[in-house]
Amino acid sequence: MAEMTNDNSHQSAGIDLSQFYQVFFEEAGENLETMEQKLLGLDIVNADDEELNAIFRCAHSVKGGAATFGFTDVAELTHQMETLLDKLRRREIAPNASMVDVLLASGDALKAQLGRHQGNGGAAVDTAELLNSIRALVDGRGPNTANTANTGLAVAAGVQAPAPAPVFRAPDKPAARALELTVGPLENIGDADNLVDLFKEITDLGTIEPLDAGKGADGMRRFKIVTASSDDDLLDLFTFHVAREQVRLAPLNSGYGFHEGAPGAPVDAGEAEDPGYGFFENAPGAPGGDAETEAAAPTAEASPATIAAPVKAAAAKVDKAASAPESSTLRVSVEKVDQLINLVGELVITQAMLAQNGKGIDAGLYQQLASGMADLERNTRDLQEAVMSIRMIPMSLVFNRFPRMLRDLAGKLGKKVDLVQVGEATELDKGLVEKITDPLTHLVRNSCDHGIEMPAERLAKGKTENGSITLIATHQGGSIVIEVRDDGRGLNRAKLLKKARERGIEAPDTMTDQEVYGLIFAPGFSTADVVTDVSGRGVGMDVVKKNITALGGTVEIDSAEGYGMTVRVRLPLTLAIMDGMSVGVGDECYILPLSSVVESFQVQPGMVKTIGGSGRVVEVRDEYMPVLDLEKVFEVPRFDFEHVSNIMVVVESEGGRVALLVDELLGQQQVVVKNLESNYRKVDDVSGATIMGDGRVALILDVTSLIRRSRH
Amino acid sequence: MHSILAVDDSASMRQMVTFTLKNAGFNVVEAVDGQDAFEKANSRDFNLVLTDQNMPRMDGISLTKKLRENPKFKSTPILILTTESSDQMKQAGRAAGATGWLVKPFDPAKLVEVIGKVIR
Hints:
The complex is a heterodimer.
Chain A: E1 3-4, E2 10-12, E3 15-16, H1 21-40, H2 49-69, H3 72-89, H4 97-117, H5 128-138, H6 145-158, E4 177-183, H7 192-201, E5 207-210, E6 221-227, H8 231-238, E7 247-251, E8 256-264, E9 277-286, H9 334-357, H10 367-390, E10 392-394, H11 396-399, H12 401-413, E11 417-422, E12 427-429, H13 430-451, H14 455-460, E13 467-476, E14 479-486, H15 493-502, H16 513-518, H17 541-550, E15 554-560, E16 564-572, E17 577-585, E18 588-593, E19 597-602, E20 608-611, E21 615-620, E22 623-629, H18 630-633, E23 647-653, E24 656-662, E25 664-672, H19 676-679, E26 686-691, E27 697-701, H20 703-711
Chain B: E1 3-7, H1 11-23, E2 27-31, H2 34-43, E3 48-52, H3 60-69, E4 78-82, H4 87-96, E5 100-103, H5 108-118
Helix pairs in contact in B: 1-5, 2-3
């Protein structure tokens, strides 16, 4: 196929094919995801033609690219899948659950193979079982389902963490060749099937397909073989079944042909030898056919019609039946988007400074300047919103993994669970998506594992046999709210209280239901009698809460015993902007995340007490809370010695509270969060910085860290 | 300069074909499926159409038939990319009016060789 040079590059006609690998990998990844989703959504009883065709095309597309770019392991597996899918789409065989299982497992194997080629490491993928199962299904036999499931899981278990610097693994060598095999004349045409069986029995031998539609003529059969084995090796195998003189192998390396007489077909085109391409004789446009082979000479294009870079053209009209999503989106690197957001952030800060400085301007005298400033403010705000929305992607990208995960999990547990998605088009920041996926996964697993009852138990309770888990995503104010709702057994208040007390956690009977449910988030808490390997290992609800809080979000639980449970996660729409409360200490300004501020009040004499010589506490409504004097924490220089800080701001994080002593409350505003660590270094008790309207730098305080400090 | 319409629903294939043909001195316009190709063909002229067979919305054979109905493309060389060179596929192509076929997988050298036979 392609010539391989010594230095591992994949060259042909002076063109290095490896420059196209990245696009192929991305495209193959998308095709595999689409295929998985469609397989999961396939109605086995009333399979839709278009769906079957679409699934076929996914496998076909991956095969085409894999074969072209030399990834023969991927090509071999997709080729087999394609054979099965082709029969399905032609309705030659009917779909069943084992086929879906085998195809899903094959999809997993392909992901692993592609991962290895991209340099992600991982164990070599053994596809022998899968290939056998697929062939069995194609032939109308049942697959060995137990082995198939194991292969799928074994493959998943074998994949390890990605290597630090991805290096393309060179496509398998030596490169596969296409050959034409002619067999005969045979007394019994069926003898040729023995040769076909060889390819079924021996993995990595390659692929074989009939060129004569399975029917021979005059005892002759023709096949196309794609293989990395040598001619001699093949002939050695073939001669077990047929005589040496009855087998002929010829290179199919030309791979094209012209129909004689077809328009535009070349004059000397004959079909005597199949060079792998062909021109139909007298077909329009065939070489040497018509005298007017050339259509009207096209005018030279003024501008290049296409660019080799992966930029798709502007939105094309999209048909209802099938969409062409590629033509209405643009692929842009994340670094470019982040840089754009950063620059806009700087613009916002500069505009705020101008606005601040321009406050004193006489609007009457400098009317145009004043109105210009107003326009600038509006434009900047619009620009910021628009740019932020670039990083917004729909929740469906997070939700997409759950149908498959739930199917596998429910199957393993013997439960029946339907998954419903609401609001999957709701968008949130890409950075958040990556961080919310693990916590959400744990919540869904938890619902399935501990919440939803076994089918028999549900029926006995008068519920539907199938439990349901609903994922809901909505925008509320400046936040996104994600709910995981199940109709399982719900939470048992008494059980929770008992468990908490057993663990030494204070749980008075006066706790509200909400507070009792919140006990689930306490570290080490687990109400399951047996920690299953499904959702118990390593991750707990406490980690879920910690992750969500770290994103500036909150999580709460609602439950009705016997009916179900809802976990509600609230997240800010983006990490780059924050609602803050600014406080003053001396000449310094500090920002507190508004979501963590509980209350503020003026200190009265006698409210603050000293304990143990060093710690100070303040009494608030019969409760004592530690006090942190920010002036001392940050060693703020004090020039006016008569001044005493007398304002307390109570902040809260992860169940803990602390009262911060400050001079004054300056206000509330949205601040653009700048990362301190990447520009300077990590500073204790500080989570970031921002530039205020007057140009001063204000440090954004890390509430969790301050609370920890107050406890020491 | 000759213009080629390259039709394939796979972005990596389109890229490879475009790069190869541009390198060989041709102007290339890409289309993502038969429908897209048909629309582009109606508004421009091409010296050659190179199309994949299996695509959503309109496949290669159907595209070929529709193009031949347009007098502008009566004699334009149309090559169908196929992953098999079975007789059945060849017949379908011929019946649709295609000029010839090119079997996938092919490498850039092969592509240039075939094109060279139909475009001088």
